[in-house]
Design goal:
This protein has 353 residues and is of the alpha/beta class. The protein has three domains: 2-99, Udp-n-acetylmuramoylalanyl-d-glutamate--2,6- Diaminopimelate Ligase, Chain: A, domain 1 (3-Layer(aba) Sandwich), CATH 3.40.1390.10; 108-322, UDP N-Acetylglucosamine Acyltransferase, domain 1 (3 Solenoid); 327-353. The strands form seven sheets. A ten-stranded parallel sheet has the order 9-12-15-18-21-26-29-32-35-38, with no helix packed on it. A nine-stranded parallel sheet has the order 10-13-16-19-24-27-30-33-36, with no helix packed on it. The chain has a six-stranded parallel sheet with strand order 8-11-14-17-20-25, with no helix packed on it.
Length: 353
């Protein structure tokens, strides 16, 4: 439980209303009750405020009331208290962390875990039963390895990182500080490299490179990141992966980029900073995508994408062009009929000369 004035201070917001309201929790705009705080992430949801029972609401700066029909503590028909902030969604995340802090256990290494030779463990590491830590691996201070995690030989994991059950990290992978890797992810498996021989057989090309993952990266469930053929596959700091993403060998992904579910990035691609690949995007090999580019869902990227671009479609083209194409597609059958009529008319006119 926290007073509203304290929450306003945490999110650096402008408070309008009773600063002494006791806030017991945080909930969605539709489910919040008296005593709770909620947020409006977009102005299109403002109409829902009239039916909201929350005692306080986080709003974007410049948003004005009144919001009749809302309730504050005790269920009265007064307006809720308001906290105006630059980014309500960010403020929501900050307050959510206050009411739901992570539960941290003291450091321990289970007797049922396997820890190899010459392993270096930082202070307060937590290694659960049936985790495997290979020879000469390093695990940083405060890091947690959940059951059935596999760390190969000479893997390096930074501080305060969480690796969930059934994650496999192959040998010599480096993982930074405060990384989160969700269940089933595979880091450092062989890249997809083969050469066709004269008899048609595929000969495997040894994949002898590494994977390097920066700080504060989050890797969703069942993500696969391949090791480099030579050199390194690099995931820079702040990158966020949704579930079920594939990253091929020698890919470089720039800081703070976001890769959404079922996207696939082929070998040797380079993504700049703050790039967004939406769901089911496919990128062919050796493509460069510039800083701040956005690729919309189910797009197929077959050539370089300049910085700041907003593209969609397969093959991906500027979104403004793609929209015009989509508007035109339903008209194609009638346009073809018109063209055929015109061709016939031209043919008749030519014969009449």
């Amino acid at each position: 439980m926290m007073k509203l004035r304290d929450l306003a201070a945490v999110v650096k917001g402008e408070l309008k209303g009773d600063p002494d309201i006791e806030i017991t929790g945080i909930s969605s705009l539709w489910n919040a009750r008296a005593g709770e705080i909620t947020f409006v992430a977009h102005k299109r949801y403002l109409k829902e405020v009239a039916n909201c029972q929350a005692s306080a609401i986080l709003l974007e700066e410049g948003t004005e009331g009144p919001f009749p029909g809302s309730a504050t503590t005790g269920g009265s028909n007064q307006e809720p208290a308001l906290i105006r902030v630059k980014n309500p969604y960010l403020a929501f995340a900050q307050i959510l962390e206050l009411f739901h802090p992570p539960k941290v256990k003291p450091g321990f290494v289970s007797e049922k875990a396997f820890v190899g030779k010459d392993v270096r463990l930082g202070r307060d590491v937590r290694i659960f039963p049936f985790a495997y830590v290979g020879d000469e691996a390093e695990v940083g201070e405060g890091t947690t390895l959940y059951p059935f995690v596999f760390l190969g030989d000479r893997v390096k994991v930074g501080r305060e990182t969480r690796i969930y059950s059934h994650v496999t990290v192959y040998e010599e992978v480096e993982i930074g500080d405060r990384v989160i890797i969700h269940a089933g992810a595979v880091i450092g498996s062989d890249g997809f490299g083969f050469v066709r021989m004269e008899d048609g057989q595929q000969r495997k090309i040894p994949q002898v490179g590494r994977v390097i993952i920066g700080d504060e990266v989050e890797i969703g469930a069942n993500v696969c990141i391949d090791r480099a053929n030579l050199g390194e596959t690099i995931i820079r700091s702040g990158v966020k992966f949704d579930n079920l993403v594939h990253v091929a060998h020698n890919v470089v992904i720039g800081e703070n980029s976001m890769i959404v579910a079922q996207a696939g990035i082929s070998g040797s691609c380079e993504l700049g900073k703050n790039v967004i690949l939406a769901g089911q995007v496919g990128v062919i090999d050796h493509v460069k995508i510039g800083d701040n580019a956005i690729v919309l869902a189910q797009s197929g990227v077959v050539e370089d994408v300049p910085a700041g671009s907003f593209v969609s479609g397969s093959p991906a083209i500027p979104h403004s062009v793609w929209r015009r194409v989509q508007v035109s597609l339903p008209r194609l059958p009638e346009l073809l009929k018109t063209v055929k009529r015109l061709e016939k008319r031209v043919e008749e006119l030519e014969k009449g000369r």
